[in-house]
Amino acid sequence: MRYLPLTPRDRAHMLRAIGVPSIDALYDGVPAAARRREALPLPAHQGEIEVERHLAELAACNLGAGRAAFFLGAGAYRHHVPAAVDHLIQRSEFLTSYTPYQPEISQGTLQYLFEFQTQVALLTGMEVANASLYDGATATSEAVLMAARLTRRHKAVLSGGLHPHYRDTVATLTDFAGFRATALPADADGGQDLVASLDGDTACLVVQNPDVFGRLHDLEPLAGAAQARGALLVAVVNEPVSLGLVRSPGEMGADIVAAEGQGLGGGLNFGGPHLGLFATRERFVRQMPGRLCGETVDADGRRGYVLTLSTREQHIRREKATSNICTNSGLMALAFTIHLSLLGEAGLRRLAELNHAKAVQLADRLAGLPGVRLANDSFFNEFTLRLGRPAAPLVAALAGRGVLAGVPGSRLWPERADLADLLLVCASECTTAADMTALVDGLKEALR
Amino acid sequence: MSHSSDLARAASAPASPVVTATGHRGLDREEALIFELDAEGRSGVDLPEPPPVTPRLGGLARRRPIGLPGLAEPQVVRHYVRLSRRNYAIDLGLYPLGSCTMKHNPRLNEKLARLPGFADLHPLQPEETTQGALRLMHELTHWLTTLCGMPGVALTPAAGAQGELCGLLCIRAALRAGGDQRQVVLVADSAHGTNPATAAMAGYRVEAVPANARGRVDLQALKARLGPDVAAMMLTNPNTCGLFEDEIAEAAAAVHAAGAFVYCDGANFNALVGRVRPGDLGIDCMHLNLHKTFSTPHGGGGPGSGPVMLAAALAPYAPLPFLLREGERLRLVERREGEAAASFGRMKAFHGQMGMFIRALAYMLSHGGDGLKQVAEDAVLTANYVLARVGDVLSPSFPGPCMHECLFDDRFLKGTGVTTLDFAKALIDEGFHPMTMYFPLVVHGALLIEPTETESLDSLEEFIAALRHLAAEATAGRAERFTGAPHLAPRRRLDETAAARKPVLRWRPPDRPRAAE
User: Fold this and answer.
1) Does B268 touch chain A (CB under 8 A)?
2) CB-based burial label for B21 (10 Å; 0-12, 13-18, 19+)
3) Tell me, what DSSP letter sits at residue B51?
4) Which residues on chain B are in Cβ contact (under 8 Å) with A299?
5) Cβ contact (<8 Å) for A172 and B129?
6) Count of alpha carbons within 13 Å of B326, Cβ hemisphere only?
7) Chain A partners of B86 at a C-beta cutoff of 8 Å?
């Protein structure tokens, strides 16, 4: 067995040194009823050839985005990731290291986390960011819990533009933690009055930008209204590339930013692992969840980095910790930070402009189809169409022709029949003119 | 511009007697922050000119630059390669972090997770186009339920701590469904910090159950505390002292008799995989860390994956989505309906850590049922071998045998002027990552060693020799090599107190130190 270096002779030698007759003796504490001497009814070990063949067969049963004209977004975005990113994150020293608890021999990880935190803070327009959480949905939940701690209030108002998976994740955690999450109904056509739902027990207003329909919101008046009532504004971003072109939540007054970072550096990966980003004001830092990396000096006075403010965390504070999170999304944070370093200021702006321009072109072409209405007045790289009939069957039909047309409303809001005619469509720098034509022609024909 | 050499010159004398002009020491290079390597307008990508369009940003276009540095690709590549060389890693050597299971990460698994049919797949594509991915999840389910002897599994949790939360939420939902509002979760004294933090997050009051003199859960104390207010008992098995909870069956029976559930932290499943099924021990609920037992890489802190194994009584309450088989076809139930009607809800976006599922399944297929059993046995063998070989010079906290990790306390350092921390840091100079220190909390100055099954005998011997040598040095009164350690790492000890007192959590441009916003 190729991953096990001990030989039968080694094992015999080791058992002698330990002073037991057999390996079974080391399992003496296991209740007799639970002891198994024979292997479980599972297939026997296999070589690389067989394992690779089997998994390649499974992979071949999927229609990967690269084999289709591809237009899905809704919280997972397909961007071109420069080749250097994946090469670098596979460096053994990054890939196979543990959490940097021993800073003297983890400066590589710690320095990139410090750089990552800085990039996230700059991008979101906030003062400080943590070293990552699991994904955008859990980051949003953590933001709500943090707002509740900061305000000592018990209610969160979730805008109707929040991704339903995020809404449901927040609802799960707030329900069991004794908070109330007031989720406003999905707001496909815009114009929902968010301020009316704020009251004296509201800890935070949660607004996604661009929202799940792709629409952009000026957060400034919302931040002002929330803050005037003693509440915080939690801004959610699930397409990080949008921040290259759209005003940052920090600039518009957000108190906490919870974001999905997968769009930079990460692949789609069928939905995971993704990358939770979390940023806030410096004065709130001691209520932040997750690991934080900070600058310091070593015994020789040289600059170095450590994990810091750990008294917020579970391994020190146990049941009084700000969160139970331990393992986060370190390697995805590395991919994010490398991708952003390659892009730089100019590259990110160009990438964002390219996404927006392609989406504008596509939206104009699709909105020209008979029976199709564009629901958005504003958007970044994703927008919503009203098709006037259920979108899911059309999406299924188009998939059969190699067009992955977008996300139908019924997939995200299965309980809302009135949203079944929605189609969320996303364009990116990867979208070609031929892809657009395939979608436009396919939809036209399917709608006929 | 580069500040790296300036920085190094500003520092006091390096450990080496040779003072270099650059501040680098041979292959050990100082590296500036990426922000200090910036030149405006430079980029490491070439993207086409966007087609001219009228923006539709609703007047919300960014007005100010972000402040990101510009670098060309060669600079970016060098920056990260240089940083990587300042890390220890399992690919460099034995990584004996107790309860972390730092084992070899097969590269085949990395290759397979990158197959475009998996990596380039959107979670909301029509299910007809993702049947292979769903089949993979289904196969993973089969392996995990067979290995654990438990009928249900929730694949979605993103990591161990989220798995714990998932498990407790299943328990809470099951109790609520029966109209039961129990408020207390009991946690073993030796538990990982995530256990009490999770119980608090799930809305429970946490009470500790002490360990007995044998390092196991005190059964009498547990029985005395059980009552109608207790929802669950959380324990780890093998526990964090590296010992099998040999009274688990009786403990589980008592917990069940009190109407509560047994939650097991599966962080230490490496000792049991393929050999002992947790379902046979009376456990109702247990998370697995795919990034421990099943060797998906730790990646410097994540991502992980924490599937939760569930007894039949808890399975209906698992989080969304549910994966169902209908003949040859698989489908995801993403709302509370049908089989998923009692689900406690969603706990993250989409369907779980697919990238980790692929790696874990490849790992299991490679080992097979026979190989996984050998994994557990070799893991237990290596830990017992280390215990046997250093037990006379370090101070084992409990008599052997242990399971997959062995625990020592600091009695052997008494009167030497050397602490557990010093001893661990000296191990860095010997070329090893330190063991887990000061955990579990049930012994003084804990040193917890988990070698794992992927170490060769030669590798173990080298590690044992280093431990024996350091123990001899400490008892011989050579405290100075310990108190100043590490001497031979890229950095000496870092000032963590200063870091926490006045936190510097990001870089700021030197000309306007606090005005980056």
Assistant:
1) no
2) exposed
3) P
4) 484, 492-495
5) no
6) 11
7) 93, 105-108, 111
Residues 102-141 of B with CB under 8 A from A: 102, 104-106, 108, 110-112, 114-126, 128-133, 135-136
Q: How confident is the model at residue B16 (pLDDT cuts 50, 70, 90)?
A: low
pLDDT, tens digit, 9 for 90 and up, residues B314-342: 999 999 999 999 999 999 999 999 999 99
The answer to whether A41 and B142 are in contact (CB under 8 A) is no
- Asked if B487 reaches chain A (Cβ–Cβ under 8 Å), the answer is no
In a domain, B98, yes or no: no
Domain region containing B236: 149-363
The domain defined by A83-338 folds into: Aspartate Aminotransferase; domain 2 (3.40.640)
Residue A129 β-bridge partners? A279
% of chain A residues with pLDDT over 90:
91
β-strands A276-280, A256-260: how paired?
antiparallel
Q: Is the pLDDT of residue A19 over 60?
A: yes
Q: Are B121 and A269 in contact (CB < 8 Å)? A: yes
In terms of domains, do B419 and B328 share one? no
Residue B41 within a domain = no
pTM summary value:
0.96
Show the tokens assigned to A58: 């499974």
CATH 3.40.640.10, chain A: domain bounds: 83-338
Asked if B439 and B300 sit in the same domain, the reply is no
Whichever domain contains B344, its CATH number is: 3.40.640.10
Q: What tokens were used for B187?
A: 């946690």
The answer, for B303 touching chain A at a CB cutoff of 8 Å, is yes
pLDDT higher than threshold 90 for residue B283: yes
Assigned CATH topology for domain A65-81+345-447: Aspartate Aminotransferase, domain 1 (3.90.1150)
How many contacts does A have with B, using Cβ atoms within 8 A? 744
Residues B240 and B294 in one domain: yes
Tell me: do B470 and B493 sit in the same domain: yes
CB A423 within 8 A of CB A406: yes
